[in-house]
Amino acid sequence: MEIHPVPTDEEAAAIVGAIEAGWPRAAAVDDEPEPPRWRFSARWWGKPIPLRRRRPW
């Protein structure tokens, strides 16, 4: 396949850059599992045991 008129060096570099930017790439595989995104916070069961033994008001 030929392009007419023949592009300049700058135009050819722009064309190649556009094709490279639009071409899909293989994704890298991460071997480490992600930590959970949620936590038990501000819950009664998240407090230390002595604080949980407090008497109600």
Description:
With 57 residues, the protein is mainly alpha-helical. It has two helices and no strands. It has helices at 9-22, 49-52. It is rod-shaped. The termini are far apart. The mean pLDDT is 78.
Q: Can you summarize this structure?
A:
With 57 residues, the protein is an all-alpha fold.
Overview features:
2 helices; mainly alpha; 57 residues; single chain
Task: Furnish the topology, listing elements before pairings.
Elements: H1 9-22, H2 49-52
Strand content bin: under 5%
Radius of gyration (CA) equals 30 Å
Structural class: mainly alpha
**Main beta sheet, described?**
none
Look at the structure and give the mean pLDDT. Answer: 78
Which spans of ≥5 residues are poorly predicted at pLDDT below 50? none
Oligomeric assembly: single chain
Helix content: 25-40%
Silhouette: rod-shaped
Tally of strands = 0
Question: N-to-C terminal Cα separation, in Å?
Answer: 85 Å
SSE ordering? HH
Total helix count? Answer: 2
